[in-house]
Design brief:
8 strands; five-stranded antiparallel β-sheet; alpha+beta; Virus Head Decoration Protein, Chain: A
Length: 131
């Protein structure tokens, strides 16, 4: 069986797992395994995440929330399918990493002030965002 052309292995949005990471990093130190909240649409790599305090579930960062998800908690490493009624495991970049800010995804609209606050929280956690 012939191998698929490389172009057939690239996601339509161009983002492969961990594509946002820059330079050398150790997956065992940089990423943790976490649980994602149920979501009707897929999670894409590079999605900036918050963490719901009551459940401990990662979910897209939402600066307007008051459940803990308004604070930076990590960046999703790899694509995860939509699961509207179930949580799922995922690798999340949470520390000791340098990332390309141009490849990060904010699923909830953020203004410049909210984005700067999230980036400051990321920096405090050891995730440096460069442009």
């Amino acid at each position: 069986m012939p191998e698929a052309p490389i172009r057939d292995n690239i996601p339509l949005d161009g983002m492969g797992d961990g594509a946002y990471l820059i330079g050398n990093f150790d997956n065992n130190r940089t990423n943790v395994q976490g649980m994602l909240a149920a979501k009707a649409t897929e999670y894409r790599p590079g999605t900036v995440l918050g963490k719901i305090t009551a459940s401990g579930l990662f979910t897209p960062l939402n600066p307007s929330a008051n459940d803990g998800s308004q604070n930076f908690a990590g960046i999703l490493y790899g694509r995860r399918p939509a699961k509207a009624a179930a949580t799922q495991r995922a690798a999340v970049t949470v520390r000791e990493a340098t990332v390309n800010g141009n490849l990060l995804i904010y699923e909830v609209a953020v203004n410049a002030t909210q984005k700067a606050a999230a980036e400051a929280q990321a920096s405090a956690a050891g995730v440096i965002i460069g442009y």
